[in-house]
Each structure stands twice: as C-alpha cells, then as structure tokens.
Amino acid sequence: MGGKYYSDVEINLKSDKLLIESEREKLPLLGNSSEKYYEKPSCLEPCSSSALLVLYLFGFCVFLISGAAIFSILESPVEEQFRDRMRMVRQKFLETHPSVSDDELESLITEIVLASNRGVSAIKNASGTPNWSFGQSLFFSSTVITTIGYGHVTPLSRSGKIFCVLYATVGIPLTLVLLSALVERLLVPTVWFLQFLNSRLGHLYQPLNIRLFHLFIIVSFFVIFFLLIPATIFATCEPEWNYLDSFYYCFISLTTIGLGDYIPGDSINQPNRPIYKIVTAAYLFIGITFMMLTLAVFYDIPQLNLGMLFSTSNDVNSEKVRLAGSSTGSQYGAGDVFNSTTATDDNTHRHVVRVRSRRDDSPSPEESGPKELRLP
Fold first, then answer.
1. 42: exposed, middle or buried (C-beta count within 10 Å: 0-12, 13-18, 19+)?
2. What pLDDT is stored for residue 354 in this prediction?
3. Cα-to-chain-centroid distance, residue 303
4. DSSP labels for 320-356?
5. Is the pLDDT at 223 greater than 50, yes or no?
6. How far is CA 245 from CA 65, 85, 224, 261, 265, in A?
7. What pLDDT was estimated at residue 311?
8. pLDDT value, residue 348
9. Which ranges does the record mark as transmembrane (predicted)?
C-alpha cells in the first residue's frame, strides 16, 4: 500500500464560485467569484491601517493646501487686471457722462449684478430668450438631479425654491439608481471585451497587464468620444469659446463639479437655443454614465484600489466585483493558473488537470480508465 495512485481527473466548475485552497496560498481563479483575496504588499505589513490612514489624511491636507496656493498664485494677477479694467471703464463712463453721479452708477451696477446672479442678462434691455422656457427648464432639471448644479440659473419664487428642494430630494436618488442600472448593463460588453483580450493575449502577458491595457482602452474611449469630440463641437457652436474653454467645460460638467462659468447656449444670438439645451442635457446624462463606467473598471482592479490599504483586516473578503458579475463569467486572474475554456452554454468553465497514471508499469484495465470528479 506504499504506492501512490494517479489518474486523469476532469473537474467541471460552475461559474458562480470557485476557490482552490492550498497549504500556502489562496487563489481566486474566476473573476465572478463572490469572494476575492487581496494581500497587501509585504512592505506595508509593519504599518497598521490606522497609521496609513493618518498618513493619507496628512498627504490629502498637503494636497489641498498646495492646490489653494497654486490657484492663488495663478489667478490673483489676472483678477487684479480685471479689477483695474473695471475701474478704468467706470471712470471713463463718469467722465463721458458727467450728469450721472457715482451713486446712481453704483446702484445700476448693483441691479445688473443681482440680475446676472439670478440668471437674467441685462444685455439688450434683457430681451434675450427667457431662462424658463421648456428647453431651458429641462436643462436646469437635468443639472439638478445629476448634481452638476451650475448655479447660473436659480429659482426666483418661493414656491419654485420649495419645489426644487423636493424635486432634488426625489430626483437625485432616482438618477443614481438609473445610472447604476445603465452601468451594470454596459459592464456586460465591457467584460466581453476583457475576455476577448484574455483569449488573445493571455499566453503573452500577465492578467494584471491585460487589465491595465483594458482600462487604458476604456479611458481612451471616454476621453475621445466624451471630451475631445464634444469639445470640438462646442467650440464650433459657441462663438466666444475656444477649444480649451470647450474641453474645460466638458470635463467640469462630466465630473459633476459644475462651476458654471461656461454654460452652452447662453449667448444672446444663439440659434435654436431651447433645442440646443435639450441636446446638451442628453450629452451630460450619457457622458456621466460612461464616466461612472470608467470609474467602475478602475475600481475593480485591486492593485489600483488604494482603499484596500486602509482595511482593518489582512484579507479583504466578500468584495463587490463590478466587472465580473455572475452574469458575465469573466476570468480575471485565472489565466496564469489554468488554461480554461468555456465548455457549456450555462457559463460552465472546464479546467482539465491530467496526471499520468503510474501505479505500476502495467496497470489493470479497471484502474487505467479515467475517473471523473464533479464539484457542485
């Protein structure tokens, strides 16, 4: 009984969960597993998660202060130039029109600024397109529920302000649910594309390198079709915008920062302004969806997810897998362990491990046949 028995083993593994345990390590073979194991780098083992968090907070504060200092250095001279220009224009106006007192001019400027802050332009006797036409109102509603909030147009009445609060309270959660549902649908072709890259490049590169290449393609798609090309369109449609202004607007809007310094369709002579606003609202909604998709792809790569460094446990179990959902059957990290193929239509992956039978030089017929072990 001292001899060892070997046989051909064929294991059918369902795609909902696979975890092979060995004495030294745990390896997640399929990306659609409900559990993932991520080990922190060995250089970080002596440091506790609390110490890392404190260090990160310190770096974040330094980053915030550095940004404030750089903005102050860059923008203060330009602001001073505008102030000098306004003083010169004001002084020139008073000299040209001596009948107008300084107090009267100050009162007029105050009213103009107040109207401008409420979204009402004083140019051409305030005869431009109204801000609360249906197209303009639809654009405003989209900026509210997507949390962009440009602030160039705000409700003027008390009832409008109350309705805005209620509308945002209901609309923002509904929008988040809809965006999440759309991202989940878009993840299906995204994972298919990753599987295609694994099938073509899995024998040449490590899974992490393939996933980084996949992320690069997704980011490039987002930048080209939702930043560069729309910036070209806005630069053509907006008479006072150059390409940098248009790209700046696209980035600020799709990241939901919404500074409100550049608003499409606010030109007095803008043709078809309501329709232009509706098309812009559709662009913002679709662009934010693809931005969330890009962030989901980025977040699903554990090596790039810095949040895992601050985990209180050594292994991060039960991590939500965004790209490798149970309906997609992706194979993240499995390429370097087994050569897997999709065997059946119900997303069953077959891994074949063949070991030469050698109980003795001439095995008996009943021992030489293959044995099959199936795991549920």
1. exposed
2. 44
3. 17
4. --SSS-TTT---TT-TTT---EE-STTS-EEEEE---
5. yes
6. 26, 22, 16, 10, 14
7. 67
8. 41
9. 54-78, 162-183, 212-234, 246-263, 275-299
Q: How is residue 102 written in tokens?
A: 């300084």
What's the pLDDT score for residue 75? Answer: 93
Count CA atoms closer than 13 A to 15's CA, side-chain side. Answer: 21
One-letter amino acid at 152 equals H
Q: Does domain 127-299 have CATH number 1.10.287.70?
A: yes
Q: What gap in Å lies between CA 38 and CA 282, rounded to an integer? A: 39
pLDDT class of 125 with cuts at 50, 70, 90: low
* H helix runs in the chain, sequence order: 49-96, 102-117, 134-145, 158-201, 207-223, 229-237, 243-254, 273-299, 365-368
Retrieve residue 49's tokens: 């998660």
pTM score, two decimals? 0.67
- Is residue 93 a contact partner of residue 105, using CB atoms and an 8 Å limit? yes
Phi first, then psi: what are they for 11, rounded to 5°?
Answer: -115, 120
How high does pLDDT run on average in the chain? 75
**Torsional class of 372: left (φ above 0), alpha (ψ -120 to 50), beta (otherwise):** beta
Q: What are the boundaries of each domain within the chain?
A: 127-299
* Amino acid identity for residue 219 in this structure: V
DSSP state of 232: H
Q: Cα angle at 188 between 299 and 254, to 5 degrees?
A: 55
Amino acid at position 139, single letter: F
- The CA distances from residue 319 to 18, 19, 40, 199, 315, in Å, are 15, 14, 15, 25, 10
Cα dihedral sign for 338, 343, 348, 354?
Answer: negative
Mean pLDDT value of segment 124-129: 59
45 contacts 315 by C-beta, under 8 angstroms: no
Question: Binning pLDDT at 50, 70 and 90, where does residue 104 land?
Answer: confident
φ, ψ dihedrals at 27, nearest 5°: -120, 125
The per-residue pLDDT for 111 is 85
Token pair belonging to 132: 């609360």
